[in-house]
Design a protein that fits this description.
Largest sheet: 9 strands, mixed
Radius of gyration: 23 Å
Distance between the termini: 65 Å
């Protein structure tokens, strides 16, 4: 049984007065203050009945006390189950039951919504938990690396969500491998505006404690305020998805600044496709945009570009981080196959789902379900999800490739592609776009696409929508596009206005 001193206690001992956390309102907490508050919460949770091994659900927007409660559970040896705030009551009920949650913790804004579920014996808001008396209990001063620390549910884009078990070792190696690639500076401050209930957000706060790094926390992403914070709050790093990166680049373009400050050293990009035009804009403005690839099952990034390769390998997600491995299996004629990964940051499986766990692994290799290829230098290029693949007349069409091409067209701000059944070809691609250009025509779009795509990849239909369906981490939900398409073809009545472009 491998152990190490508790990360937070160790950091509090070494850097007690260093600012660990700052919120958007200017409130600050040192590492010592976070440790003391987390331990206080641990004693209160023990008083409320939580013991080692218990599963505690946390459903909250980004709040400082959320991370303190997560660490409080680690002092008790309990497991934090992070729940998406955008879930319906039916979805929450399923995940609470599936994870065998015995207590829920939430913020004030969600309190009545969560308490109406009536499926857990107790539920506290952060403020209510503060009022609970502290028990006299010995707290864990060491971490057992093989123990499960957190459970997060997959986004459910390809079926029923599954609870991904993430151990302390998974999180430790994720943080260390990222640092070995991107480096670490004593002045680093990571801006977090992605949800903390997703791995992209949580991993920032785990890195913070392991590295001794400051974090600036925003409740949610707003391009203008995040842009201002980069210049005024000494932000050196930020995690983004494509839509956030595009918004920030647009803010930079509108401003009087020619680039970000010299101290800003990393915009870590994950969570989906990236149009070449955005990558080129980032390079033109000197923005250090690091593409990466990862998933809940890999405890955040497992492949990332290095500082030396962000310009030389534009469009690539990089190489596997130390000590991860990656291989491509079932390669087709174009060299594209399924991505499989292994390493100490990879989950040991799904909670209470041995069959799903067995199906997800081949020996120690996790079958990601993502498609990609390696270039001659071993750099990884992500193509698409296997389940989203469109097969038309025997030809493979990857929606992400078509979406990239669409978003490179002036006037199209976002795009999503799915397959439509076709009597002759089996399937044909259909595109949904967001655009403010009232003069954009289908013929114009298709003509532009023909410059970069083979004829069989050109969409048969193009629909204009106000907003594409996305989950809380801004990943496109192609399954929902499929549902929209079916309703549109059936002339079913539903709230969203979908207009086919002529």
């Amino acid at each position: 049984m491998k152990e190490m001193p508790h990360w937070l206690s160790k950091q509090s001992e070494q850097n007690p007065n260093k600012i660990a956390l700052e919120d958007e309102y200017g409130n600050q907490w040192t590492f010592w203050e976070i440790e003391q508050t987390s331990k206080s919460y641990a004693r209160k949770l023990y008083k409320a009945g939580i013991r080692g091994g218990d599963h505690v659900g946390i459903c909250s927007h980004n709040e400082p006390h959320m991370i303190m409660v997560i660490y409080a559970l680690s002092y008790l040896g309990a497991v934090a189950v992070l729940l998406n705030t955008k879930l319906t009551k039916a979805e929450l009920t399923y995940q609470i039951k599936d994870a065998e949650i015995s207590m829920m913790i939430t913020n004030e804004a969600l309190s009545s919504y969560i308490k109406d579920l009536e499926i857990v014996s107790s539920c506290f808001t952060f403020s209510e938990l503060t009022n609970v008396a502290e028990a006299d209990v010995r707290l864990n001063d060491h971490i057992v690396l093989s123990d499960v620390f957190t459970i997060m549910y997959t986004s459910g884009t390809t079926g029923a969500p599954k609870g991904v078990m993430q151990t302390y070792e998974n999180h430790w190696w994720s943080a260390i491998s990222s640092m070995l690639n991107l480096g670490l500076d004593k002045h680093d401050k990571w801006l977090c505006s992605v949800p903390m209930f997703h791995i992209s957000g949580l991993s920032i706060f785990l890195k913070s404690i392991i590295y001794g790094m400051s974090v600036l926390l925003f409740k949610k992403f707003k391009a203008e305020t995040v842009h201002q914070a980069i210049f005024s709050k000494q932000v050196t790093m930020i995690s983004v998805v494509t839509v956030m990166a595009r918004s920030l680049l647009n803010e930079l373009q509108k401003s009087t600044e020619t680039s970000y400050p010299d101290y800003f050293r990393c915009m870590l990009l994950g969570g989906g496709i990236v149009p070449l035009s955005d990558l080129e804009k980032a390079r033109a403005y000197g923005v250090p945009l690091y593409q990466s690839y990862g998933m809940t099952e890999t405890s955040s990034q497992i492949v990332t570009l290095s500082p030396e390769s962000i310009n030389a390998k534009i469009g690539s997600a990089g190489k596997p981080l130390l000590p991860a491995s990656l291989r491509i299996t079932s390669v087709d004629a174009a060299g594209i196959g399924e991505i499989e990964v292994k390493g100490p940051m990879v989950t040991k499986g799904y909670y209470n789902k041995p069959a799903a766990t067995q199906a997800a692994f081949c020996d120690e290799w996790l079958k990601t379900g993502d498609m990609g290829y390696l270039d001659e230098d071993g750099f990884v290029y992500i193509v698409d999800r296997r389940n989203d693949l469109i097969i038309s007349g025997g030809e493979n069409i990857y929606p992400a490739e078509l979406e990239k091409a669409l978003m490179n067209i002036k006037g199209i701000s976002a795009a999503g592609v799915c397959g439509m059944s076709d009597a002759n070809w089996g399937e044909r691609p259909v595109a949904f776009i967001e655009s403010n250009d009232a003069h954009l025509s289908a013929s114009e779009i298709k003509l532009t696409l023909q410059e970069s795509l083979a004829p069989y990849k050109i969409p048969d239909k193009i629909f204009l929508v106000s907003t594409l369906p996305r989950n809380a981490s801004n990943k496109l939900l192609r399954r929902t596009l499929q549902e929209w398409l079916q309703k549109k073809l059936e002339n079913s009545c539903f709230k969203l206005e979908i207009k086919e472009i002529d």
